[in-house]
Specification:
The complex is a heterodimer of chains A (374) and B (395). Chain A is an alpha+beta fold. Helices cover 51% and strands 17% of the residues of chain A. The longest helix of chain A is centred in the middle third of the chain and has 37 residues, at 220-256. Chain A is globular, with a radius of gyration of 21 Å. In chain A, 54% of the residues are buried. Chain B contains 13 helices and 8 strands. In chain B, the strands form 2 sheets. Chain B has a 4-stranded mixed beta sheet. In chain B, strands 2-3-7-6 form a 4-stranded antiparallel beta sheet, with no helix packed on it. In chain B, a hairpin with a 5-residue loop joins strand 6 and strand 7. Classes of the chains: A alpha+beta (374), B alpha+beta (395). Chains A and B meet through helix 6, strand 10, helix 7, helix 8 and helix 10 of A and helix 8, helix 9, helix 10 and helix 13 of B. Bound molecules: flavin-adenine dinucleotide (FAD). Flavin-adenine dinucleotide (FAD) binds next to strand 1, helix 12 and helix 13 of chain B.
């Protein structure tokens, strides 16, 4: 048992943290508010790619750094902590990872090295809060190629990505395909989400796709489950990064802010509310890293990722309001950074499926006799 | 980063499960049940000695002190398993006072008492609280005065748990009434309960747990019974309390209880048809408890790992105490709802079932550790100060 990061991991963590914080510092986040600018800092993203971070879990022969999920999650934690406007989670967990695990060698060679270098951007349609593969994307075999039709409600980074990894119904069975974003018949409608991240609704009408772009058929369900586990863990650790930042921001602010002639932090009710937030964040840290380290060791971690999701959802909600409250008006002043974090805590809570749904699924597992203490 | 037991640790846990399955005979269980889960009976004593003889109590202690030289993590696995087995292990003696004696005791204490603790021959009670000194422990008034080479102790302690079958009281007394601040001028003594000036009266609590008021009427001890620096007792008190806090939260028993309630719910018919566990709200409750216990488990794992690597943080230790004590209450409530009216029947009541009887009692005992072992308000103060660097008001 080891709760510490290795020297390599600590170095990756430091590097990812520094690049993200400096990148955000340089340009600020205000220009993305209210969708003024597209929330994508291409320069920062390139810097991260040049440092080998998005491809950190990809084998070296495919252009990555040959590390694993723990190392990748250190990048995601840094993104959560800084709110860096980059497509890290979508590109890695819903793109690089499944391709590196499930795609044919030819497809991997064609896509992964360029994607690690930052020349291609990936995204994937794995965000269903309902936790089942979408049934709204259809594929038919026609004259030796595939025709795609249907829709997907909200796909992060769809309009910026070069390739979209899509779970589709191919002749009624689940399959996963890789579609170029500029394919004729593909329409994207940009959406406005609460946290300003670029997302779009996807519509497909008779979009042609060569057969080589089928990533997998027999293993499609396995791929779906495999990505969902990692996406859940990735969202949790991104939530952790944001939560840690909000907690420290609140402790710092209340220590400086004076009322009645003393720092407001000295009021026991204020200290205690943040002490509770400290405990929440500690639980989020432990459950998240447990899930990640188990996945990294090749275990299934179905239950562990869901428990982490429950904690991530509860923590996001409680921390967000505790932080706003102890800041008073400053907390919601748009000239102060807290409010953007609150939007992200909210988004991540919801896209994880919410605590209620995760508890329902854990409870069903328990009723089947799964997840007892050993 | 790898949050799993290694093969040796898993093997140790399995070995301990087998060991306790043999140790916890029906007669011993019945005796512990009778003694309200506190121990003190003859079979309990005998079992404690056997654990000592078999080298378990000092598993994680240095060999030079009579231990087996493994790490605090292995010691933690042992404590979790002994508690899980339902044996009322005197963890305050072995896990908090023992290590303090080993670290701060004079050679006589180290050479005579510490080995006896590890052999399972000694039980020590904690004598801090007084009628007028609770959370504000430094307000204590029991005093020890010089008498030739030794000391004479007079005063009253309150809530001195286990004193009625302990060999010694780890007693905090005022040795300098004129010290400027009340935290100064306190010293720590090991008072033998065999002294004619010592007496003890039971105090019965809601959960059926017996504790005691203890009285010290010209109790005489030699200076060798004093621990650590004269008038430097406060450091020992806080050191002991830090260790106590860490051993108050065990996830072993509560995870075993969870499994037992789960088993009950899967086997029992619901009034509305089907099995209890088939109801959506029951599944929701169980999932919530499962998640709370998982958090508790991870926090205590991390704490024992941190102790092994010397990185234990004050805020983390307080966080476990607050989270664990409050999670217990929530878990007992939710599991009680699952079991329903049976969780209102006393264990001995006709038709009572085993999990219901346990929950009936646990629900009555759960409040103790939210204020005991340092009130949760104080723990939250510590978290805010040590974990978040927030300034605190003077007290
Ligand atoms: C079953 C049992 C076993 C015990 N065993 C032992 C033992 O073996 N040895 C021993 O020495 N003691 C023991 N105790 C005593 C225990 O440690 C005390 O109960 C505890 O320290 C609280 O003291 P008190 O009961 O006097 O409550 P008080 O100090 O009167 O506190 C009551 C409440 O006031 C509030 N409060 C107090 N101070 C503050 C503050 N600074 N900020 C905010 N809120 C505050 C808290 O809500 C607190 O719970 C035991 C108690 C029980 C019930």
């Amino acid at each position: 048992m080891d709760f510490a990061f290795s020297d390599t991991q600590a170095a990756i963590r430091e590097l990812a943290g520094r690049i993200c914080e400096e990148g955000v510092e340089a340009t600020g986040l205000a220009r993305y508010d209210e969708f003024r600018d597209l929330r994508f800092d291409a320069g920062l993203w390139q810097t991260l790619c040049d440092a080998g971070l998005p491809g950190v879990a990809v084998p070296e022969v495919l252009g990555g750094s040959g590390q694993g999920l723990v190392e990748l999650c250190l990048l995601l934690e840094a993104v959560g902590h800084s709110l860096a406007p980059v497509p890290a989670l979508a590109h890695t967990v819903t793109g690089l990872l499944p391709l590196q695990r499930y795609a044919t060698p030819a497809l991997q060679a064609a896509i992964l090295p360029a994607a690690c270098r930052g020349e291609r951007l990936l995204t994937g349609a794995f965000w269903q809060a309902a936790d089942a593969p979408p049934t709204t994307l259809q594929a038919e075999l026609q004259d030796g190629e595939i025709r795609l039709s249907g829709s997907y409600p909200a796909l992060p980074w769809a309009a910026q990505a070069d390739h979209l990894l899509l779970p589709v119904r191919l002749q009624g069975e689940l399959a996963v395909v890789l579609l170029d974003r500029d394919s004729p018949g593909l329409t994207l409608t940009p959406l406005q989400l609460t946290h300003f991240e670029p997302q779009a609704a996807l519509a497909l009408e008779g979009v042609a796709l060569p057969l080589e772009r089928v990533v997998c058929r027999e293993e499609a369900h396995a791929l779906w489950d495999w990505v969902r586990l990692r996406l859940r863990a990735g969202l949790c650790v991104q939530q952790l990064g944001a939560a840690e930042r909000v907690l420290r921001m609140s402790a710092g602010y209340t220590s400086e802010r004076h009322q009645f002639g003393v720092p407001v932090a000295t009021f026991q009710a204020v200290g205690h509310r943040l002490a509770d937030a400290f405990i929440d964040v500690e639980c989020l840290r432990l459950t998240s890293w447990q899930a990640i380290s188990r996945l990294a060791a090749g275990e299934n971690a179905e239950l562990e990722t869901r428990m982490a999701a429950v904690v991530a959802a509860d923590t996001g909600h409680r921390l967000s309001y505790a932080a706003q409250h102890v800041h008073g008006g400053t907390g919601i002043d748009r000239d102060y950074p807290l409010w953007r974090y609150c939007q992200w805590l909210r988004y991540q809570e919801m896209v994880l499926g919410g605590a209620g749904q995760q508890l329902e699924i854990i409870g069903r597992g328990l009723a089947r006799g799964e997840g007892l203490f050993t | 980063m790898d949050i799993r037991f290694n093969a040796a640790q898993r093997a140790l846990r399995d070995e301990l499960r087998g060991y306790f399955a043999g140790l916890m005979t029906p007669a011993l269980r019945a005796e512990c049940e009778r003694d309200m889960g506190e121990g003190g009976g003859p079979l309990w004593r005998e079992a404690l000695r056997r654990m000592g003889e078999d080298g378990w109590i000092g598993l994680g202690w240095p060999e030079s002190l009579g231990g087996r030289g493994l790490s605090p993590l292995e010691q933690f696995i042992f404590v979790e398993e002994v508690m899980r087995a339902g044996y009322p292990f005197p963890f305050l003696t072995t896990e908090s006072v023992g290590p303090m004696l080993a670290e701060h005791g004079n050679p006589w204490l180290q050479e005579t008492l510490v080995p006896r603790i590890l052999r399972g021959e000694l039980v020590i009670a904690i004598g801090y609280s007084e009628p007028e000194a609770g959370t504000d422990l430094a307000a204590l008034r029991t005093r020890a005065e010089r008498d030739g080479d030794g000391w004479v102790i007079n005063g009253q302690k309150m809530w001195t748990s286990l004193a009625h079958f302990s060999d010694y009281i780890w007693l905090a007394a005022r040795t300098d009434a004129d010290a400027g601040r009340k935290h100064k001028g306190i010293s720590l003594f090991l008072v033998p309960t065999s002294d004619p000036g010592f007496s003890c009266r039971p105090v019965h609590t809601l959960g059926g747990v017996r504790t005691n008021a203890t009285f010290y009427d010209n109790v005489r001890v030699s200076d060798a019974h004093r621990v650590g620096e004269l008038n430097g007792g406060w450091k020992l008190i806080t050191g002991q309390l830090n260790r106590e806090r860490l051993s108050l939260i065990n996830f072993g028993p509560v995870s075993e209880l969870f499994n037992a309630v789960h088993h009950w719910a899967a086997e029992t018919d619901a009034a509305s048809g089907g099995r209890v566990i088939e109801q959506a709200w029951v599944q929701q409750h169980l999932a919530r408890c499962r998640t709370l216990i998982e958090c508790m488990k991870l926090m205590v794992y991390k704490q024992s790992w941190a102790m092994s690597t010397g990185q234990l943080g004050m805020a983390e230790a307080s966080a476990i105490k607050v989270f664990g004590s409050e999670a217990f209450i929530e878990i007992f409530r939710l599991l009680g709802e699952v079991v329903g009216p049976a969780a209102l029947q006393r264990a001995g009541s006709p038709g009572a079932n085993a999990v219901g009887g346990r929950l009936e009692r646990l629900y009555r005992t759960a409040s103790i550790i939210t204020f005991g072992g340092g009130a949760n308000e104080i723990q939250r103060d510590i978290i805010a100060a040590a974990g978040l660097w927030m300034p605190r008001s003077g007290r």
